[in-house]
Amino acid sequence: MEKQNNVLLAYTSVQVAEIYKQWKDHYTGNMSDFYTFMTSPSIERERFVISLELQSELTGGFIATNLTVK
Fold it and tell me: Are the CB atoms for 53 and 70 separated by under 8 Å?
């Protein structure tokens, strides 16, 4: 069995404003709170991320997950 050394990168998105609007439908806070929420691992964050569309991309040894609004 070949060893896999792929590195998972942080979530990425070009639709930050749209994702922020969707986040505001369920959470209170400003953009700074949203960034803190998205960069701090939690069960709440994973539930929110699952509600978005996820697209994974393998680039070399890196796996990037791009978030978009459904």
Answer: yes
Is the pLDDT confidence value at 38 over 70?
yes
Decide: helix, strand or coil at residue 64: strand
Percent of the chain with pLDDT over 90: 70
CA distances from 68 to 16, 22, 25, 50, 61 (A): 8, 11, 16, 11, 23
Measure the CA–CA gap between 65 and 53, rounded to whole angstroms.
10
| Whether the predicted pLDDT of 3 surpasses 80 | no
- DSSP result, 26-61: T----HHHHHHHHHS--HHHHHHHHTSEEEEEEETT
Beta bridge partners of 58: 63
Q: What pLDDT is recorded for position 31?
A: 97
Q: Collapsing DSSP states into helix, strand and coil, what is residue 22?
A: helix
